[in-house]
Amino acid sequence: MKKIYILCIEDEPEVLEAIERDMATLEDSFPLETAENTSEARQVIHNILDQGDHIGLILCDHVMPGENGVDLLIELSQQEKTHASRKVLVTGQAGLDATIEAVNQAELSYYIAKPWDPVKLIATSKRLLTDYILEVGIDPTPYMDVLDRERLFHAIHEKGLISDT
User: The domain that contains 26 carries what CATH number?
Assistant: First the structure.
């Protein structure tokens, strides 16, 4: 079975550790990969896709050394293999213009301001991963206990994989 990864791109080690800690509840079903900058992120993405796996969710900081996160998210939204990936800008420093650019050009799925509420981060991640699985057409049954069970059950029922009788 192909894996569905969560990718977190964050240059501040303490923030990266906090995200890893908060996302740990999802890691059994969705392996978490990290990168400290956009060039490292491209290499991680390349490795995941070369294995034939998916990137379901990308959590990305905006202000990083070198290229900013919004530019990377725009690039990923234009690539076939990462277009459907759900993209979340996690930042405390993006101005209105950068945020608008992310929404309009990177097809941003969500914006989370630092510091974030861990419960909201997990709930948002579950919703977005559910969206990804349903859009891409991945068999949702392995994720019933982790994601939005009601939406996944409804999708299975609509596709005729199960019936009421």
Answer: 3.40.50.2300
